[in-house]
Known about the structure:
Layout: E1 2-7, H1 20-34, E2 39-48, E3 54-58, E4 61-69, H2 75-81, H3 89-105, E5 113-118, H4 126-131, E6 135-139, H5 144-153, H6 163-175, H7 179-191, H8 200-214, E7 218-221, H9 224-233, E8 241-243, H10 258-267, E9 275-280, H11 289-302, E10 309-314, H12 326-335, E11 342-347, H13 351-360, E12 363-366, H14 375-382, E13 386-390, H15 393-398, E14 404-407, H16 415-427, H17 431-445, H18 448-463
Parallel strand pairs: 1-2, 1-5, 2-4, 5-6, 6-7, 7-8, 9-10, 9-12, 10-11, 12-13, 13-14
Antiparallel strand pairs: 3-4
Helix pairs in contact: 1-18, 10-13, 11-12, 11-16, 14-17
Amino acid sequence: MKEIIVISPEFALKEGNEWGGLGVxxxxxxxxxxxxxxxxxxxxxxxxxxxxxxxxxxxxIEIIRVFSVEEEKISWWKKTYGxxxxxxYEDFKKFTxxxxxxxKKNRKEEKEQxxxxxxxxxxxxxxxxxxxxxxxxxxxxxxxxxxxxxxxxKTGKNTNLPAPIKFFIAFIKFLHLPLRLFVWFLRFIFxxxxxxxxxxxxxxxxxxxxxxxxxxDRVVVLSAGMKNYxxxxxxxxxxxxxxxxxxxxxxxxxxSNNLIIENIKQKYDIADDDVILLSAGRIxxxxxxxxxxxxxxxIEDECLFSNKIKYIICGGNDADNRSDGEYLQQLKEAAGFxxxxxxxxxxxxxxxxxxxxxxxxxxxxxPSVFEPFGFVLLEAMARKTAIVASNTDGPLxxxxxxxxxxxxxxxxxxxxxxxxxxxxxxMSKKLxxxxxxxxxxxxxxxxxxxxxxxxxxIIENITA
Length: 464
């Protein structure tokens, strides 16, 4: 019997404790592997100090917490998300080293052992794991080089970053390197071993990306855009990269809780003829919420019924800001300049409350400057919501004209105006029909069953 070792910095033992894309993905990844119970499975993850080091999850699955952190150490993160264990890159680096030590100690030459590394946060010591003889599948949920380029270099928004990273980004902007040369420049730095001069956080994330591509037997990505990015910027064969779309979480097909819906409507004084715009996600500049608010300012100046529009942004602060809510404060200040349209910030929401916010929404807004997939789009579609999103990899692969619109975000100075035009166009269409089309597309196209089959094929192929 094959042994599957899943390496993920986030794994929720209890149903409902998972948070964000990584937590949801890990849950379904494990469930897909255990279907049929043909494998012995170990999960190497992170725990709190008071959690047992080893624990049975279900049947032939064992959880091994190779790295533990003090709960108070990450209280700021836990307060924000309610679940995550760590948020500092030094801790992730320690976690990946402890993973390597565990894999080295438990390597069995006579046994087929396949490692599934979940997300770049677990890739750092992949070169050493490869030397041990494991078969490796790496799952990319994001692209660090593209993320840094799109979020910081292209927009120039780096005020919340530590000084070393700010200096590095300023240096790249000074060189006027296009994205392709930026990636080549980083690859060259790593080749001649000058990466020690990079800020430690960037060394960790960029080197993790490179090692994930170089030392894996198979690379799994979530969209065709992610695959094309790697093919354009790296010397990697196309058949090494598999595109597997996420499936729709069954929780998002649950019936509505009318009591919670009514409470939300009363809280924000929502009338039946109001147009409700919704965004949900980390409060981080990657999500581009300022472009949506800027678009609303333009709509307010032109739209006769703008006093019937309400915009709700659900999400907690992201510690990546390094300034404890500075970006959130900027958004609130920008929203304060709106005279008719109201913007609300409920904070982090989950479970039935999260479903209720989607249920009251007419249009979901995703103005991200970088979004490799965007699981939240599937959530919005499952709750029958029309969509307006930026033209990043995720939305381009998911959204169809029947239920939404993708906005050209290539020129930062035009983002607000183009987003405003798209929102007005969607508001002028027959929203009930679009919302039904979104739902139909979600349940027909994004099924975890096909995800299970594809993962199974990859496991069988690399051990054949």
